[in-house]
């Protein structure tokens, strides 16, 4: 599960393994959440290092190797905030509200902003867009990105597959 992890309720019982690079919604860069059903614990790829065997990890309370303590600590704070804020149901509502506002601005800009993703396929978490026209205007986008940096809005340069600008609507802007 990529960037939509914990942005909506998910019935984990329908999956044998959930592997989520969860840094956008749950914690700092590099944190990964793995949820494994009991029937998948014994499954291992041929010649898989023991550090990657779920049964070994589960048998050692996920402490078989040195864990990324800071990332786990931050993730604990974020998960607590999500829980206290209403859980995944509340996060889905929040994602819908924020993305709706953003897409309405894009769609009502009379072409000044454009989103290269068809409405039925749009993400509620990562919103790519171009400025100036459908392909983007390099000069306008550069001015926009320069201003975002002045305002401490980081990493808004476009997604590698579509270019332009990308806004990530994460949940974890919480006071610690």
TrEMBL record:
InterPro entries: Aminotrans_V_dom, Aminotrans_V_PyrdxlP_BS, Pser_aminoTfrase, PyrdxlP-dep_Trfase, PyrdxlP-dep_Trfase_major, PyrdxlP-dep_Trfase_small. It is an enzyme of class 2 (transferase). Its cofactor is pyridoxal 5'-phosphate. One of its GO terms (biological process) is L-serine biosynthetic process. Pfam families: Aminotran_5. Pathway: Amino-acid biosynthesis; L-serine biosynthesis; L-serine from 3-phospho-D-glycerate: step 2/3. GO terms for cellular component: cytoplasm. PANTHER family: PHOSPHOSERINE AMINOTRANSFERASE (PTHR43247:SF1). This is Phosphoserine aminotransferase. It comes from Colobus angolensis palliatus (Peters' Angolan colobus). The lineage of its organism: Eukaryota, Metazoa, Chordata, Craniata, Vertebrata.
């Amino acid at each position: 599960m990529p960037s939509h992890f914990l942005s909506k309720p998910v019935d984990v019982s329908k999956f044998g393994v959930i592997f989520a690079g969860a840094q956008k919604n749950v914690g700092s860069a590099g944190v990964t959440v793995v949820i494994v059903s009991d029937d998948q614990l014994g499954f291992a790829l041929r010649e898989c290092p023991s550090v990657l065997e779920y049964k070994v990890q589960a048998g050692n309370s996920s402490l078989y190797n040195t864990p990324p303590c800071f990332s786990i600590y931050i993730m604990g704070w974020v998960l607590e905030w999500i829980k206290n804020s209403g859980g995944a149901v509340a996060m889905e509502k929040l994602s819908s509200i924020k993305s709706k506002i953003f897409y309405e601005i894009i769609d009502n800009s009379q072409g000044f902003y454009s989103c290269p993703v068809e409405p039925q396929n749009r993400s509620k978490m990562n919103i790519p867009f171009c400025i100036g026209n459908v392909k983007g205007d390099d000069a306008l986008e550069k001015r926009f990105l320069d201003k975002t940096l002045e305002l401490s809005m980081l990493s808004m340069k476009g997604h590698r597959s579509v270019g332009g600008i990308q806004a990530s609507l994460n949940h974890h802007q919480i006071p610690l």
